[in-house]
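Follow-up to my earlier ticket, as requested here are the two runs.
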Amino acid sequence: MNTKQYTRVGVLGVASIATRSVIPAIISLPNQYKLAGIASRDSSKATTSARDFGCKAYENYESLLVDPDIDAVYIPLPNSLHYPFVIMALEQGKHVLVEKSLGCSLIEVQQMVELASARNLVLLENFQFRFHSQLATILKLTNDGVIGNLRSVRVAFGFPPFADADNIRYKPELGGGALLDAGAYAMKIAPYFLGKDLSVAHASMAFDSARNVDIWGGGMLQQSGGALFGHFSYGFDNYYQCSLELWGSLGKLTTNRIFTAPSNLEPELLVETSHGAERKVLPTDDHFKNILNYFYKLINGDASTALEYEGNIQQATLIDQFKNVVTTSSIS
């Protein structure tokens, strides 16, 4: 258990999500965190970012990870680099917040979780949407029976092609592809509505043979011991969608920014029943700050690391099942 007033955080890499969202959120929580350092394989980038954010620059990832003055690390590196640097961080006694997807395979995730558990360290996958208040509101409306008994769930998360043709998401050697980048969100949200006992009943994937990565796809998750199911679609060669639809016996609830609502956006829910349609405007919220507050609670023993270990394994298991049952079509 960390007994310090704040947790000293080091950041591996200067990815856009780090510099644009997570690092500013860390700095905004001075009672919980101190931004202690930023590392990059490009020392000039580390120096520039460290100067901008008022912390120490490290010339490589390893030098930050072995520094005893770092309590926890945030890892926004490409997917294929998560495993080696998460393992190194855990071996050095650091708590870890890591971008999704946690690993490129179920075996990788199992090994990371086993080490975190053995060392009594936090291993948190950075799905911020879990901590946006709109999800809690949707769960309450569903549990209160506003749309009756739930019948099915539909999720769509995808966006247009990246302007940068050299984007890491197009590189198979870096763990690229749409499943680990966008499809993973559907796996993560499904248990909130369908329960934990899930399996992949169908999977379809379009594979870009030129880039050697999957580009879009979808499938169905099925309760192993029940009748509920969820359809999902994802991709990054798509018209933008970020939607959740819950269809019940008495109505339907939909929202269109379930995963990516920025802190200045008031999310909107549409609830449709036989009595008519009601549009609910929800308050703004900052899910980056919220997940960091949760990370701090985990570090200090005020939330369950065991539940996160379980969730990490469940997520990786569903992605592994998807890969094993997928029907692939190549596109040029």
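Run two:
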Amino acid sequence: MNSRWPFPDLARGVAIVAMLVAHAQVLVPDRAAGVDELLGRVNDVASPLFALVMGISAGVMIERSASRPRSVLVHNLVRGVVLIGLGIWLETWGSWVAIVLAMLGCLLILGTPLLLLGRRGVALIALVFFVLSPMFNTAVRRAVDWPGGYYADIANDPSVGDLLVRWFVADPHYRVTSLLPFFLVGSLLIAYARRPDPWWSAAGVVGGAGTQLVVTALRTRPGADTGSGSSLDLLHDASLVAVVLGLCGLAVRMRWARLLRPIEEIGTVALSLYVLQIAVIAWLNRDAAIPAANDWGGFALIVLGVGAAGWAWAHWVGRGPIEWFTGLLTRRYRLSRPL
């Protein structure tokens, strides 16, 4: 792990821990309004932060393979197909989680070729999607007369076309068009990821927090469009991501980053940990009945139990099993090499 950049792993670790908390909060319905607001923000930051760190990784691969970009395209195509297949499979496990892996897989397949357009082109496309994707998504949903909600749920045996519409523009929680700006911006942050600048980190925290206050005020106005994927929602997510990235950057540059080393290690096995938490949640949800009273035992199992299992695996074993399998498929790892 010493040869790895700590920043992307730390940010990815924060994202998976945020996702564990977000998914476990279902088991503690009796909570104060302030706690509910905090958990809502924890839930909102996870997926865009994942998309941004994926963009950093894809940008690094493009940079290192400038003379053979086709290899990167093939590599991320395979990874994207694995994420899509895994996401479809996880939707059949019976958890209460809105599975995001299929969208991230489509994001990887669509977004990687765009990185070949250069930094200016990437920045322009990111801005266009950030500004116009809410209107585009609404227009497409109206054009296809989308019923809303989880119309293309895997359990309903949807067509490929319905699945693509849901994943790209119509899912009630995540959409490729909404996550693409974060992926593209991530690819522009390679220099920052190598050695986070403390001044830029502090600016991210202050600017993100200030934007979050403004967006929160705007979201409470009568008639404000606060739905997932709206312009206010994208600003909300972007401000949260800026705060988290700034804090991660400060942590990497300061001594107290050692205290966050377990989260950094969890970030190296995030995909395997994601699958493990879905298995645990599906087991807890085997009777398909969310408890009306707080279930702190189940909450601790998901957050502390799954988190500790991921840290232990990363610390003593190393590469996550699904990360290893994906590496075999993309020929990044070979069975003849020591695991």
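The only thing I checked on run two: Residues 44 and 118 are 29 Å apart (CA to CA). Let me know what else you need.
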